[in-house]
Write a structure and sequence with these properties.
Length: about 230
Amino acid sequence: MCLCVRTFVNTNVSGYNMTRLCKFILLFYFITFSSCEQKNSYSKVDVNVARLSNKIIPLVNFLDNPDSCKKALLFLDSATTIDNGCFLCYYNKLMFLYSLKQYDKAVVTVNECIRLNPSGQDLYLTGGILYERVGDTVSAKRYFQKSLTICNSVLDTMSNKNTDYDILVGNKAISLIMLGHEVEADKILKVLYDTQQDEEMKRMTLSLMTKTKKELIGQFTDDRYSH
């Protein structure tokens, strides 16, 4: 499961570039859509914000092109200048900033997302990885712990039949790995793998197992990790 671009209309993204999307934004194979469910009232969105946001749609197919990414960011920067409460605009910025490996700017952007949706556990997980990439391990640890706390709180009252259950369990395991609890995380992932019916989710779960924090960060950011 991966994150796809969120705009004010539906998008069509080729299979090849959807794979690229999975690498860039979310870094995570287990990213929930919970943050994208931020209570944005589309009927109240400024028409210029919607117009600017929708201009990124054709650019999603060119994530490997720096000029296209920069162009998309200009549109989204203009949109957030008009409305700094546009969660989807900030959220979509992450994809292009990841493509450009502008992790410092991505840190600022994910914190804007958190400002607008402070309960989004996946945002803290994203933020933790970004802080690791810019060398701020103290902030990274705090964000990973926050993500884990939210996951535990939600999972304590969630049925395992809930469609988000497996994703949250996966995010919990990632947070544990990032906090240095690889053994506990692998036990959770093993259960998730053994009980998983969806083949794609099984494959993604397997890709997380027996990994260290350093390996996962390199894997999520599609780059060599040297911190």
